[in-house]
Amino acid sequence: MADILDTEIKYLTGIGPKRAETLAKEINVHSFRDMLYYFPFRWIDKSRVYPISSIASEQIFDGEEAPGPTSSYVQIRGIVTHKEAAGFINGRPVKGKSRLIITLKDATGTIDLVFFSGLKWISEKLRQGEEYIAFGRPTMFNNQINMVHPEIYSPSEALNYGTGSMAGIYSITEKMKNGGFGIKTIMKIQSLLLDKVQDHIKETLPDDILNTYKLCPLAQALRNIHFPVGQKELEAAQRRLKFEELFYLQLSLLKQKNARLAKGSGIMMLNVGEKFNACYHTLPYSLTNAQKRVIREMREDMRSGKQMNRLLQGDVGSGKTLVAVLLSLIAVDNGYQACIMAPTEVLANQHLTSITKFLKATNVKVALLTGSTKAKERKQILGSLEEGSIDIIVGTHALLEPRVKFRALGLAIIDEQHRFGVDQRSKLWSKNNNTQTSLAPHVMVMTATPIPRTLAMTLYGDLDVSIIDELPPGRTPVVTKHAWESERQQVFNFMRQQIDSGRQVFVVYPLIKESEKMDYENLEAGYMRIVEEFKAPQYITAVVHGKLKPEDKDIDMQLFASGKADILVATSVIEVGVDVPNASIMVIESAERFGLSQLHQLRGRVGRGANKSFCILMSGYKLSKESKKRLELMCSTTDGFLLAEEDMKMRGPGDIEGTSQSGLAIDLHIASLSRDGVFLQQARLAAEAVLNQDPLLISAKNKILTDRLRQLRHDGKDIKDYSAIS
Ligand code: ADP
Ligand code: MG
What CA–CA distance (Å, rounded) separates 311 from 514? Predict the structure, then answer.
């Protein structure tokens, strides 16, 4: 029987093909189901009408210091006392200037409502002397509070739009607005849709799970998420829908893992041979116990006859590279090749350097393949890989290109996984188009981002996990201090003192897309200031950032790595792994702009040698409460896991650095990996319970689950189904 929820959204009364296109493009809504799952992102108590005079007061701004873009939506009610069109010359609108200002007055005061588009329509609709309800977000402009493009209802209209109860706020893109989709329209659509399908919504969770976890039925949840009659009902709906998402996410991950294990076959690597031993016995230090343990764990996987899929978690500096090398050698000793993939060229280069050092005593052939490998060399490398004369290939995303083929890829290692999506991982899975075996290579993912357990089991829910929980001996914890801009001279003096005693210094600038231009200007200015302060030839300053040509980047990187440069000014690209043991100071500029995990990563760049090391967090004068807390926390602990937990708590709705959900098997619409840890645990348990009885979900009883899984994976437009090859 066809499911009414699969109906295309264009068939809903009042939508049609044109508007359907907008919905598809802007919010990925194609069907009735998609629309119903387009949830409000917050809910307002619309039973409350604020006195206009109170709007500027703190209570409605959630205690924020000043009204800003994040302040709350409020509802006000008043009479139109004044209408004024501005920004017109000779009756013609001046582009970007024309606007309509409507003054609304209640018993306590007045406020201006400002409109920039649809002026004629609004002006006709809002009649002088009549009463209206306005619903919007107060903003500050010219030192005056006003409300830009609020939703407007006449008191009689308001009754149809949830006024008097809880009302949802949907996120609306600019293009949606232009295409006629305001919050009000979306509400109308949802209301229409719910009335139409309410009796046809099929339950998506089995009864026993609903009972065990006390969840409300789907139909009820969907109504209450859009039109909750009260807080309690809203919470029940959220709980149910979050649980469902997380449950299916876990189910999908665990089922995948079961499928992989059931298929069984993996390349059997029984030897620990000559090359492994040659490397092992010439190491300048002995392995830490944690390194030994994780190597043992993975060796077991690699000889088990099943495909290894393992996550190696270890704080910065814990020695993951060496582990990667030794495991690669196991592959080589068994007649296979290995590849090590890094997220950036700088890192790939660095890996090559350290790996080559480790392999001095062996005759293992290593090569590097990145986006900037020259055509001629590339051709040669590709040939050698296919023919098998290269044992270990180090590289970037370039390794994923289809033309990269191996004779026999036995182990694929991905460094700093959080930059790679699941689908990218799966490309490596399928790389083995070799002649010797048709089996997928073993896969090891390394991450230095300590992530909380709840998060790990989602992001890597289909992987086994090994943890290096110990740093090599002789490291002294990095001393971390916060410094204000006004203390810059002292910071420079301190840098000079360290450099004079032979150390090197990192100076890192934030760089994000949204403010790229300004960020580069800051870096440039900072670099000039340093060159001015630390004059050549006595002091050499290197600089590395994304705008430089790869060659120039390389030269400066080499200058610093080889100890010839004293200072390296860089963007946060160096965050993920550059190893310069002689560097003892990390200066982080605009530190308040980094998240805790990122700060921790950056700090991990120093303190790798025997010298006492320092991390200086620079910031301007104004710090929000949260930034202050973050910087204080950084100064007080070097425990990466603790910082990750705190990061997750503080960051609220945002996801932890680098763990955005792109790459999740199922899109999350409502659940948050960082905030819904409790539901996540429950969902995991529930999924485990189901799969314990029916590992591959083949019983008839579980059809409801496989149906929904299929639906979800289909809906998550990004999902690449790699069960086919795993
Ligand atoms: P990660 O990649 O985990 O951040 P690296 O692999 O870059 O860490 O290792 C950091 C530094 O520690 C490197 O200089 C490496 O040579 C060194 N190292 C690795 N293992 C040991 C060990 N067992 N004892 C001493 N130093 C080690
Ligand atoms: Mg590393």
Answer: 32
